[in-house]
User: What shape does this take?
Amino acid sequence: LFSLSLVLIIVLASIRTAYGNQLQNLFNLFADFRILKPSLRESQSITGPVIPLLFFNYAISMSIILHFLNLNVHYRFFDYNDTWWIDILFFTGIIFCGLFVKIFLMLILEFFIGEEAGQRQYRREIMKNYAVLGILLLPISIALSLNDSENHMFMFKITLVLWASFYLYRLLRGIISGIQAGAYPLYIFYYLCALELVPLIVFIKVLMR
Assistant: This one.
């Protein structure tokens, strides 16, 4: 697993070398609420393979963390010995499928509402959120690969705090983006209930059971 993390380090180093300016733009777009305005977004655009590669880094880093979580809980998704790649493939597939389903449902909601209502910008916010979060999760995945199991629970708690913080931050930026795009508050409420809050509640209930 450390070798897989090493590949991700090489990918990030390559992005930093080849697309340093766009990587800086990514952090500027992520941190500054003023960039939600169209005129400022255009001056900080991100093109090329930066976002897809960083999302790939997020998916693999999160899958490594979930793999170790799977090894530390009483109920496991799989019962196997030394076949870590099954976990990685499974969790990576879940992450990619979850993204595609969310975007598909957003497009359906946009069709029924009859207006864009800031959803295109919010889809970009989702990708930027995952891209930055993946950079922070990579050190945790490396630490899990190198440390003994006694420190794993602490790493899992850090991951949960990071993921929850980024999730709430993304929702806040999405609400602001929708308001700036002129979306009706009722449409924003429908979106939050249908595509964010309900799936999250169902996911939490599944974990609790």
User: Anything to note?
Assistant: The CA atoms of residues 16 and 23 lie 7 Å apart.
